[in-house]
Every structure is written in C-alpha cells, then in structure tokens.
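Hi R.,

Here's the chain you asked about this morning:
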Amino acid sequence: MGCDVSSPAAGQHRALGAYDIRGLVPEEVDETLAYRVGRAMVRCLGPGMYVVGRDMRPSSAALAQALASGLCAQGGDCLDLGLVATEEVYYAILQRRLRGGVMVTASHNPLPYNGMKIVGPGAMPLDRHGGLGALRQAVWQDGPAAGGRGRLWQGSVRDAYLDYLLGQVDVQALAGMRVVAECGCGMAGPLVRALGDRVPFALISLHEEPDQTLPMDIPNPMLKEQQDRIAETARRYGGQLTLAFDGDGDRCFFFDEHGTMVDGYYVLGLLIAACAMPGETVVLERRLLWYSLDVASRRGVRVVLAKAGHGFIKSAMRRHGAVYGGEMSGHHFFRSFGFCDSGMLPWLHVLAVMQQRGCGLADLVRTAREAFPISGERNRPLHGDTKETLLFVQHALQKEALESDWTDGLSMTFPKWRFNLRASNTESLLRLNVETRGDPRLLDDKVVLLDALLEEHERIPAPDQTGTRVRYG
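And the predicted structure, written out as tokens:
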C-alpha cells in the first residue's frame, strides 16, 4: 500500500479519547494515522494474528485497508472481516484467541467522523489505563522495522457467532412471537437478517442493507426524530417487540408493543433479573441507580459501580468476575461473551423474559416506571470548564444533599431524588439525568431547578485576562 507514513498531523492527537480513537476525517483521522496504529499495535501487543472489521461509512474501507497494511508491515497477520457489526470483531478474537483487533467505526457520531475501537487479547479494551497510552506513544514514534511482512486474509466468523447467540437462550420456546428490527442501513442489518433465517419466530428486519449514503442519517436511536420514526414503524408492523440499533450495531434500543420507547435504564433491571443469580455480581454506572439497586437487592445480587464507558465497565467486570454489566445508553456486557458488549444478546434475553412471564414489554416495565420515574437523559452543549460548572451546581445544592460523589461527573443524592451531571466521553455535551422515588411532580421540579442552575452558570462572564471573574453589579 502506498500510504503516507509521515508523522501524524497536530489535529490527530485530539482523536485519542478515553477508550478509543475518534475524530473528523481527514483532519483528525486519516489513512496515515490508521497505518501507524496498525504498526503500533504489533509493536505494543506483539506478533500474531489480528482482526479488522469496519462499518458502512464512506471513509471506513480506506481506513481499514490502511490499518491492515500497517499490521502486516510490522509483521502481524491480519484477518479482514470486511463489513461487520462490532461484536463480530470481539467474537473473532475470543473464538480464535487472536492477539487483538480493531473495529473501524465512529458508532453514532455524524458522518464527517470516523474512528477505531481497539482491543487486545481476550477482546480486552485498550484504554488510558490499560495500553492505550503506550499505543499513543508508539503511534507518534517510529519504531524498529519488522523482520518480515505478515499475511492478510479475508474471512468471516458470522456462522459461528450465530451458533453462539442461538445457544444463549431457549430459542425454540420463542416460537410464535413477532419481532421487528429497524436496522437503519447500519451494521446490525446483516446479522439480524442471518438470525431471521435461523429462528422459529417472526423476525422482520427493515433497512437491513448497510448503505454508505445513509439515507436516514447515521442510525442513532437516542435522537428524538429517530425515536419518533421508529415508534411509528413499531405501530405499523405490530411487533410484540421492536428493536433499533446504532451505526455499528453494538447498542440495542427497545420499543414496546404500543410503539413506546423503553428507556435503557429499565432494560437494565430486566437484564439483571435475566442474567444474574443470587450471590453473583453485576457492574453498573452511576447516572441512574435506584431501580437497578432495587432489582439487585431483591434478587440477592451484588452491585459494583463503575464510570460510564465500555472500557471502564469491561475492566470492572473482569476485576470482579461480574456476570452482567450495563449502561442506560444501550450498551450491555456479558461474562459469557468475554465481558464484551453485544447488540444481539440483550433483546434475545428480554424476549425470553417476555415469553417466560407471558406478558408484553410494557407490562414488564410499568411498575418500574411508576416506582422510579426518570427525566431521560438531557443533553446540552458544554460551555467552559466542566469542573467549574459541576462545582457551581454542587455549591448551590450541597446544604440539602445527603451525599456527593465525583467518580463519574457529579452525582448528588437527596432524601427523595438524585441526579448525575457529567461530560460526554465522545461529544462536547453535558449529560443530565434525574430520578425520584415515585414522585413525577418532584422530578419535573428538580429538572427545572437544574436547568435553571446551568443556565445561570452559562450567563456568568468568563474570567478576564488577569484571572479575576467579572461579577454582576
């Protein structure tokens, strides 16, 4: 490959995030960077077989090719899976005990972005505390040349992965059910289509062909306009369960039999109940907690809290041997899948729970919604210094608080309500979540209060050049 191997541009240093590489193409992520990442992986993780997969973005094919070329140039062998969902990369590493792998994707970010999700042996993520720092250094520096060039293969693990998925639940018991899957022209489509050929229930997949023109925009069911469209689809097709996926297929979103989206927070509780036996451990994040803690307590399940983000959740699960880990943003992690996240396993487990209890998804979560009402994640543009903003909010509310926690942004707990306010790991946004104990009116009041505090802080002028803050007269 004739890839430029010059030093990365200054903007490319910004692409290295908390647990992946992600940025604008080509200013921050380009073929030069991908090639150097491939070489750096072999220098950091050692020789052996690596796997590369990619999503449907227009820039992904060239980035994946450059990445594979870099791996081979440094003496690593490379299995190129082509267009796949992220979990197929993880499965290839686990099944074949490969040295590591990369999924070329920017998940749900807008089209001008792309990136690389990088994992090592056992599909363990490389993050700032577990190898990504060393990789960063190796990317920016020229290392020794390899003794010989590695080999490149094209292949697939899809059939074996389908066998694995179908062995995780009693699929035959699901006969007669009806599931609709809105794939959004992203990478979940081919997997869902292949599953549909092998299950005894109706699995209707829509927009299943990956399409780099993205006729419906990047699949991101967290966006209100996409939720409205998917809800209408759910009502039109009449599934007992309707699913939606993000661009690389590793996040799954649920709509009930009435076309109402079920917040990922309530799905966490269903999966704790489905996956964890008494005495086992689950790993959760801090954004919303009370419902998950209630489910875990009633089942005798131990809860460990971690920062949001797939690298943090997976690391905590491995340390504690957790059977399940979950984020309310739609990521679900399973010990049976090498502590990795999957977009397919969650809905298979939820469908099995629906069949076992003989009721629809709306009935499964009705009590939880009433007992633990939530605001839904409220995002606003990040202005100024995050820590300063969070300190302002804490100072305004600290007299009434029972507890403040800074592990992942700011969490504050009060007698009848709590909130978490944190900066996004991947976007320039502040994310606010509020919950109460059975009091929707209090929930509305506290959302208004926190919005007002954030707006008040945004109106405070920035410090002048002497460092003195200008105060209102």
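Confidence is low (pLDDT under 50) at residues 465-473.

Let me know if you need anything else.
M.
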